[in-house]
Amino acid sequence: MADTHSIIGTKNKKGQTYTDTWKMMNEAPRTPSFYTGSEVIKEAIRRASCDVMIAYPITPQSEAAALIGELFAEGYIGDYFRGESEFAVMSQCAGAAFGGARVFTTTAGPGTMRAMENFPMWSGARLPIQMIVTCRGINSPLSIQPDTLEIAYLLNTGMLVWHAETAQDFFDWILKGYIVSEEPDVHLPLALCCDGFFVTHTKDVVNLTPADMCLPPYDPYRSPVPCMDMECPPVRMMRDPFVMKSNYISYATHASWQQEIWAAVERSRKHTIHWLNGLVDTENTDADIVIVASGTAVSQGREAIRMLEDEGVRCGLVKVKSLRPWPEEEIRQATKNAKHIFVPEFNVTGWLAKEIRATVPNSQRVHAGPHVCGGMTMPPEIIVSEIKTALGMKTFSMAGRGS
Amino acid sequence: MSDYRVLPGPEHFLPPAAASMGIRLPNPGEAHINGVITSEDKAYEEAARQFLMAKVPTVFPGPLVLWAWNEKAAKKATAVRHLFNTLKECVQPGQKPMLIPMPDYRPKYPKINPEVEINPNHPNLTIWHNKIDCCMFIGVHCHQANLSLKIIRGGTSCYTIAMCAQAGHEDAMLSFRDASVEKIMRLADTVKRLKGTVQPRLTSAKNGASS
After folding, report:
1. Which pLDDT score, from 0 to 100, does residue A239 have?
2. Confidence check: pLDDT of A301 > 90
3. Which of A92, A394, B149, B209 sits CB 3.0–4.6 Å from B171 for a disulfide?
4. What is the reported pLDDT for B2?
5. From the candidates A260, A271, A324, which should be mutated to test the interface with B, based on the most B CB atoms within 10 A?
6. For residues A107 and B108, what is the distance between their CA atoms, to the nearest angstrom?
7. What is the mean pLDDT of chain B?
8. How big is the A-B interface in CB pairs under 8 Å?
């Protein structure tokens, strides 16, 4: 076992230099590159000193998973294979992480749902696995198109959940995500979500760190639980667990275990703020109207704000980067001057609006919408229209468009 | 800053994790006392004072220092033994320092012997049986230590100290971080320096146990 600091500056078998992560992300030169989101995932993982990648094909993450196969062929990943199903994949990821590996996987939509049982298990076992979720429709009738409903199901698993807006976010947050989730006081899995297709399959200019620099390797000996010990919880608890005993202390221990997972989510707050430069980004929060959004709804909101400015309506913007830990205080502060809070979302239930309503005082200020789902796009005009309608301004209707 | 304070219990049927009450871990070079960030210097003084006041000051070494899995661990174990010996030298008649191991985290059924070892899932049994009113965790994996510390706070009045090799523990009443041989030795030195200056509690340990 080598100390992380003693590894910095040495080279891995591909000739990449293990680099101090802060220097690599903030001080190293960046090269602008024109890539799809999937290609960006590959480039981030090239630099992530990842030991194991396991995935099962499901649109729209399949391309990223396949591209990482190329990295394996090139020798950048220790091991790589396709599981039998998403459930199998997530269980195999757990096995690899129990053994002390830095693990990466990708999933989407119904795959996320199929594997769901594993996510609270990952958290409960304190496994810092990183999972890319390229969100798509989950319901019947089948849709492979963008839809963020699956994020709502991840919010109470005990995982860290971040929602990337752009491919640049994706590149940076994959690398920073490992650093946050592997902190010994956190040591939780990270679901790094993006809106499928909008981010994964469109090309964008992304500033990449040098390919000859990589993250320091994962040090499993900093884990808050023993790494792979079949005689100890959380592994052995599956066999003769305290949770199966019917007495107060067994229940209290299990309750304390659950509390500890959420305490670890809380502890990630300080590290997430440090690495992501805050849990939210804000613009013009002194305005009467504020749009609060995550993922690509932020981009659409930004464009709507520009259009409204042309009509003399000033709007602020809150980009929610981290959903877990939840930026409760940041959102309260950023919306304290707002008379109206609009929450555009790519899902039918409006889970983000519900979270915001539960966070801000005078929650009648929160307008849950506009919503689109099932793969529909969200033209900025419908955000503009929603805002103007709420303000009693004349607006045009987009109903019937496309007919 | 949170108004919540991490104090000896018994606190609640199910006490909250201190982190969820807004208690934050210290940064490198800092410690916390009752959830308030403080200097390490102050923490050494307070930890030594608590040890010297206690009727049954106890060190709970965990697997990370009980097993010689690397050179550092072996050196830490020697330092822990030195701290315990120092405690024995510095307490007054009527005080009974103890060294009780937490060798592993296995659920032990039908039961462990709480007189001789401590299990993170049932720490209150050991505290109650041995009437421990001040204890220090060292070398216990962070997750297991947090479980134990919270259960102790929930059901006993024991004062808890964590000498953590990582980021520290909010669920202890006092926590160091980045524990090293030097830090353990410095705590022992502080105990020695304060010998005779601290009035021990002469009444029975108030740990929620019947005496």
Report:
1. 46
2. yes
3. B149
4. 85
5. A260
6. 39
7. 92
8. 91
C-alpha A52/C-alpha A66 separation (Å) is: 14
Would you call A159 helix, strand, or coil by DSSP?
A: coil
Decide if A103 contacts A53 (C-beta within 8 A): yes
Cα-Cα-Cα-Cα torsion B180, B182, B185, B191, nearest 10 degrees, comes to -90
- Give CA–CA dist A360/A330, Å, rounded: 10
For residues B133 and B56, the answer to whether their CB atoms sit within 8 Å is yes
A225 touches chain B (CB under 8 A): yes
Instruction: Give the whole-angstrom CA distance, residue A82 versus residue A234.
Output: 26
| Residue carrying structure tokens 């964590």 | B162
ipTM greater than 0.90: yes
Average pLDDT, chain A: 92
pLDDT at residue B72, as a whole number:
93
Q: Which residues of B touch A (CB under 8 A)?
A: 14, 16-20, 24-25, 63, 70, 104-107, 109, 121-122, 124, 141-144, 146-147, 150-151, 154, 166-168, 170-171
Domains along the sequence of chain B with CATH = 30-159+181-194 (3.40.50)
From residue B23, alpha-carbon distances to A112, A311, B17 in Å are: 33, 46, 9
Strand partners, B206: none
Of the pLDDT bands very low, low, confident and very high (cuts 50, 70, 90), residue A229 is low
- From the list A252, A263, A270, the residue facing B17 with the nearest CB is A263
Among residues A76, A56, A78, A51, the alpha carbon closest in space to that of A66 is found at A56
Q: Residues A192-206: pLDDT tens digits?
A: 999 998 888 999 999
Give the three-class secondary structure for B180: coil
Residue A32 in tokens: 């602008």
- Whether chain B has a CB inside 8 Å of the CB on A399: the answer is no
What token pair was written down for A320? Answer: 């929610």
With 50 as the cut, is the pLDDT of residue B96 above it? yes
> In this complex, do A270 and B104 lie within 8 Å of one another by their Cβ atoms?
no
Q: What is the pLDDT of residues A96-144, one digit of tens each?
A: 998 899 999 999 999 999 999 999 999 999 999 999 999 999 988 988 9
Strands across the sheet containing B36-39: B36-39, B30-33, B174-176, B159-163, B134-138, B57-61, B98-99
Interface of A with B in 258-287 (CB under 8 A): 259-260, 262-264, 266-267, 270
Find the closest chain A residue to B103 by CA distance: A232
Q: For residues A315 and A308, is the Cβ–Cβ distance under 8 A?
A: yes
Of A222, A241, A256, the CB nearest to B147: A256
Domains in chain A with CATH codes: 7-222 (3.40.50.970), 282-390 (3.40.50.920)
Look up residue A216 and give its two tokens.
């320091």
Alpha helices (H) along A144-247: 149-154, 167-181
Residues in chain A: 403
pTM, rounded to two decimals: 0.94
* A240 part of contact set with chain B, CB < 8 Å: yes
